[in-house]
């Protein structure tokens, strides 16, 4: 029996809902025959978007959705995605040299913000810093959020079907500028960021927050050099991003225990990354006003294991291993809510660490989706410190409106755990229930068997007046709800 303890007096503050953010790029099958099927499709849809995805995505309360990239953004002209769809140009997609698929531009900023409203997410738009000018981005901001009929661009937005401003919550100024976004040095990018942010700001009447391109993985030097150059000039900066894909270990589905342990250990280094990048930022941001944003994260397995059999670029299957890594990562973000302002799992559908797999009339949720559903109650909750968790159990807790939510992931491939939950400064009420996501480590959902991995029904937990007890099956995720 392992005992863990809730310590309410050691809270790190409110868990930003945006930590549970998402990402949808114009790449492979994320939109085509994934989220988007078109209005003329036989697949049930609302204004072209697949109803299954709308309903399921809305159910997990997505706080924010990033678009249109990713790397796609760095060769994208936003004007290609406005106006009548029949008149929009077909263009080379950033990923053309990988899959030889051209971009139809059927889903532009109007369609995207329409989808955001359907599911209740704030738009997070990544602007093209690499191949367009600061004025182009300023015009994009003006087009999106100037009040109706105040300017010609606002009137054009209304003519194109959206009189009301889009309400963009976040602007990413560039993406991966250390590689596909121009192969810049940190100093070069910092100067470009200042130039773009300064030019754009007079059009940002909506008060949208700016996110700067940060480092790849453990390149802390990028963070330090960017902050040094940026702080010498200074302008608005809400968040600095980094990207972390924990990679792969063995086959996406047919892996062994050693490969399970390798990937879980790699995912767990997210904690180290947050500490390293925050330390580098702190030298130039003593008051810690700039938030850490991890706007691309997840497992990156070899492609070809999803239902399209390789047709959709970077499409991969999702197993219980990916679900456990999802819970581990979100627990880490929860426990660093004082410095992490937003995170965006990559990606939403048919790509990388996705929540949905779809094609034709078929659409399913992945085990990763279920974890987001089980952990959604943390959004906006007050963080509670959890002490005493064994090394192979990841756990976090929060309280909102008197209800305590605790989520735990058993990182062990084959060993079950019995957990006793106590608190020395909080009164645990008598009623608690738990939901478990558990299956063999390699288990996954398919079009043929869409419910192979699905959460259990809620069960009441025993309470002896001082502590609660619950079981953690091997390779499982549990969500405990403690009600007043």
Account of the 3D structure:
The chain has helices at residues 51-59, 96-99, 109-119, 134-145, 152-159, 186-200, 220-233, 257-268, 270-282, 320-335, 367-375; strands at 2-7, 21-23, 45-46, 49-50, 64-67, 122-127, 170-173, 209-216, 239-247, 291-299, 340-346, 356-359, 362-365, 382-387, 393-400, 403-410, 417-423, 431-438, 459-460, 468-472, 476-483. The chain has 484 residues and is of the alpha/beta class. The two termini are 26 Å apart.
Q: What gap, in angstroms, lies between the N and C termini?
A: 26 Å
**Tally of strands:** 21
What's the total helix number? 11
Q: Outline the low-pLDDT stretches.
A: none
What is the CATH topology assignment of the largest domain? Answer: TIM Barrel
Strand content: 15-25%
In short:
The protein is α/β, with parallel strands linked by helices and about 475 residues long.
Any descriptors?
484 residues; alpha/beta; TIM Barrel; Immunoglobulin-like; 2 domains; nine-stranded mixed β-sheet; 25% helix; 25% strand; globular
Record the SSE blueprint.
Elements (H helix, E strand, L loop, with lengths): L1 E6 L13 E3 L21 E2 L2 E2 H9 L4 E4 L28 H4 L9 H11 L2 E6 L6 H12 L6 H8 L10 E4 L12 H15 L8 E8 L3 H14 L5 E9 L9 H12 L1 H13 L8 E9 L20 H16 L4 E7 L9 E4 L2 E4 L1 H9 L6 E6 L5 E8 L2 E8 L6 E7 L7 E8 L20 E2 L7 E5 L3 E8 L1
Parallel strand pairs: 1-17, 2-5, 2-11, 5-6, 6-7, 7-8, 8-9, 9-10, 10-11
Antiparallel strand pairs: 1-14, 3-4, 12-13, 14-15, 15-16, 16-21, 17-20, 18-19, 18-21
């Amino acid at each position: 029996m392992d005992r863990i303890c809730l310590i309410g007096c050691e809270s790190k503050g409110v868990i930003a809902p945006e930590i549970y953010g998402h990402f949808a790029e114009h790449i492979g099958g994320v939109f085509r025959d994934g989220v988007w099927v078109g209005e003329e499709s036989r697949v049930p849809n609302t204004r072209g978007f697949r109803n299954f995805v709308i309903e399921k995505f809305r159910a997990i309360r997505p706080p924010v959705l990033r678009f249109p990239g990713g790397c796609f953004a760095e060769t994208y002209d936003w004007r290609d995605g406005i106006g009548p769809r029949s008149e929009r140009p077909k263009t080379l997609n950033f990923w053309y040299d990988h899959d030889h698929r051209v971009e139809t531009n059927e889903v532009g900023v109007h369609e995207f913000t329409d989808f955001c409203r359907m599911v209740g997410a704030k738009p997070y738009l990544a602007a093209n810093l690499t191949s367009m000018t600061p004025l182009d981005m300023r015009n994009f901001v003006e087009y999106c959020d100037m009040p109706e009929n105040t300017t010609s661009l606002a009137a054009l937005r209304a003519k194109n079907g959206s009189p009301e401003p889009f309400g963009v919550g976040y602007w990413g100024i560039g993406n991966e500028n250390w590689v596909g976004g121009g192969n810049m040095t940190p100093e070069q990018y910092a100067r470009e960021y200042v130039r773009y942010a300064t030019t754009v700001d007079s059009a940002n009447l909506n008060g949208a927050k700016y996110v700067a391109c940060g480092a790849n993985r453990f390149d802390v030097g990028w963070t330090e050099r960017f902050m040094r150059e940026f702080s010498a000039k200074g302008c608005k900066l809400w968040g600095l991003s980094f990207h972390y894909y924990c990679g792969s270990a063995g086959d996406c589905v047919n892996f062994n225990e050693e490969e399970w342990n390798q990937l879980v250990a790699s995912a767990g280094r997210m904690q180290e990354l947050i500490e390293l990048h925050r330390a580098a930022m702190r030298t130039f941001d003593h008051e810690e006003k700039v938030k850490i944003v991890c706007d691309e994260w997840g497992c990156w397995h070899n492609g070809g294991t999803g239902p399209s059999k390789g047709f959709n670029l970077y499409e991969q299957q999702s197993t219980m291993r990916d679900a456990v890594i999802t819970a581990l990562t979100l627990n880490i973000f929860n426990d660093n809510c004082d410095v992490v302002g937003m995170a965006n799992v990559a990606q939403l559908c048919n790509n990388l660490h996705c929540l949905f797999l779809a094609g034709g009339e078929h659409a399913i949720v992945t085990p990763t989706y279920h974890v987001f559903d089980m952990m959604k109650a943390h959004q906006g909750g007050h963080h509670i410190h959890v002490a005493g968790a064994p090394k192979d159990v990841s756990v976090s807790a929060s309280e909102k409106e008197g209800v305590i939510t605790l989520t735990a992931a058993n990182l062990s491939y084959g060993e079950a755990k019995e957990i006793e939950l106590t608190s020395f400064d909080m009164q645990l009420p008598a009623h608690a229930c738990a939901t478990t996501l558990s299956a063999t480590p390699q288990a996954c959902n398919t079009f043929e068997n869409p419910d192979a991995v699905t959460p259990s029904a809620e069960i009441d937990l025993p309470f002896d007046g001082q502590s609660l007890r619950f079981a953690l099956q091997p390779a499982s995720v549990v969500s405990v709800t403690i009600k007043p």
